[in-house]
Amino acid sequence: MQIHWDRFLTEKVAKRLEPSLIGEMMMLVKEREAISFTAGEPSADLYPLEELGKSFERAFGEPSLFAYYPHNGGLLELRRWIADWMKGDGLAPRSLTEEEILLTNGSQEGIHLLAEAFIAEGDAIVVESPTYPEALLTFRRQGARFLSVPVDRDGIVPEALERVLAEAGPVKFIYTIVNFQNPSGYTTTDERKAQVLALARRYDTVIIEDDPYRHLRYEGAPQGSYFALDGEGGRVIYLGSFSKIVVPGIRVGWMALPPELADKMTELRVSCEISLPALTQYALWDFLKDRDLPHYLSTLRGAYRSRRDALAEALRGQCGPLGLEIDVPQGGFFLWGRIPWVKDMVAFARYAIEEERIGFIPGRIFFADETEGADTIRFSFAKVDGDLAREGARRLARAMTSYRSALNN
Amino acid sequence: MQIHWDRFLTEKVAKRLEPSLIGEMMMLVKEREAISFTAGEPSADLYPLEELGKSFERAFGEPSLFAYYPHNGGLLELRRWIADWMKGDGLAPRSLTEEEILLTNGSQEGIHLLAEAFIAEGDAIVVESPTYPEALLTFRRQGARFLSVPVDRDGIVPEALERVLAEAGPVKFIYTIVNFQNPSGYTTTDERKAQVLALARRYDTVIIEDDPYRHLRYEGAPQGSYFALDGEGGRVIYLGSFSKIVVPGIRVGWMALPPELADKMTELRVSCEISLPALTQYALWDFLKDRDLPHYLSTLRGAYRSRRDALAEALRGQCGPLGLEIDVPQGGFFLWGRIPWVKDMVAFARYAIEEERIGFIPGRIFFADETEGADTIRFSFAKVDGDLAREGARRLARAMTSYRSALNN
Lengths: 409, 409
Description:
Two copies of one chain form a homodimer. Chain A is α/β, with parallel strands linked by helices. Chain A has helices at residues 5-8, 11-14, 21-31, 49-59, 76-88, 106-118, 133-141, 158-168, 190-202, 226-229, 259-273, 278-289, 293-319, 345-356, 386-408; strands at residues 35-36, 101-104, 124-129, 145-152, 155-156, 171-177, 206-210, 236-241, 253-256, 325-327, 334-338, 358-359, 361-362, 376-380.
């Protein structure tokens, strides 16, 4: 008897998940051996593999790490280190302890656990327009109703947020990427944070502050966090990640939680997977604890700053005259732009890979409302050196030229 | 303004999760420095750390493992190795390929992903009585309605299963632990498998076959799997784990899926955490691929067989006369028993740790229906050598004696 899987699968899995368009673009790039401006991941030549290898060796001296780790929130030493680091950077209230830190398999797992904890079918949440598509995927899976609020160069637009909150009824949370946002590159100023937090309090909702790019600031003054600004208000959950500043492949991120939520989220973790590998958490802690972190981060920043500048210059020089407009961010990995005469960037992205072997991400996927952003485009400079930037920009210019001419015929 | 978290949290997280009683018992054991018959985990002195360390070193020679791994189902080499291994052992149809293998963060993550995929609020599922409590936790979280079916020494009782299926209406799946079941130690015979699979087909439901202990058989003939028996019927999902035969702390398990489900489950994985650490998957593959696995497993089996025998003998000698009845399984980690005169084993377990510093797991938590199993008890022998077994049994006998005398006063 043939099995009709539709009868077995939940609606959220059968109907609401879909293959990642970013994944498709990255696979196409690989198949066509194209130059890639696609991946929001750090550059392999900047991985601190030698030092990390030594830390793994030391972890192997701790056989207890190979058992089930007794603390389901993750390695105590690393959680303590993170709590101290956040407080030292002014990102957390002085009261933060390791009890409120939950280690995650990358930030995405934090997003997943929060989606499970907060979103019941039909619940309203606020997301930025544009925002990170894998967060949209996870929230959509849980049945979220999206309220999109635009961001400008200073972050969420408070007037737009207030209009939405005033009309929406109860809102579970506001999901915001505060530094060098993916994809826009915009950073929320502290002034804006105060306004948004005041609105969150007035309308009794929660802020999820996703902050993977904070330490990759190339110029300008660092901004604070919602998590610290809220103090002991307990209204903010902070998501951090080591994927962009150490390596993504060991999959370590964290959540900093209001004390009232810490036990519940740990119980949820147990129901999802018992615990995560303490071995990698220990190796990461060992790597971090004796490091001159300001020096280490400064080296990373120098490398990415040059890449940002090279790609921005190449794209402006080659593609600006053809109608490409780009924003240059103060940090992070992304240039965000538009080509106003391109009405379907997904089609153009496939065309550019096929015809000129140049890959980038069509911006439409960053919008909860899929009618928005049809002419937008995201470039990642993280893995692109100067030569690649120039050659890629030339290819993109050729693709724009031939695509426009095909459109006009 | 005080935050009322009840308004924000989903019912499944706010109301259906609870701290693990096994976790509580293990913590109590640690605090009281008690002898522990609690933990269903392998013995640290049997971890192959030296060889695994070399495999991790070799993994460090592969920098691509530190990036986001491009295949979200997990390391292709390990998935291929698992598919070949399962086929070689007769556990899978010849058509199985790595495409149908999804690596997981331990089997628990497989249970979680399946719960997400299959269980909508109020859906009926069949579970064994007794069964693994963390699976119950995850299924309950998703809103499952439990249909408990008893197991005997040959596995699920088909007559009882049929009565339940005939009355229940649509059932999403049957969750079964087929070898040396946790907690009962019972193994489903191939004859029973044929009967249960026939019922699953007749009533159009799915079988989730959880099999972490298969390779720890100490005597008797190995049994086949539902996954192979079903052939290309596509009605069975198999969960495997390296936690019991290599180490639990690196958190690697897998799911073998019907081909129609593989893509969907991978998309679900992306929404939960993008991917898992390819580094640990590579190290495990490197460890497995050149190993004389029959020899390696035979050494493990020899060690655990002695422990099983020592604990069974000690408990029978010391506690049998006081009313303890135990079953000795052909494999796995657990002795399952009853003390008919104990009406609240949870209370007795706390008493025994406090008064005599001996820990074990009250059996009640292994039943979906909490009125069942009040007098049952689970002992793990995996980490218990002969001396500990004898001393632990003496302590348990003292605890039984004083507890009974307190009950009678």
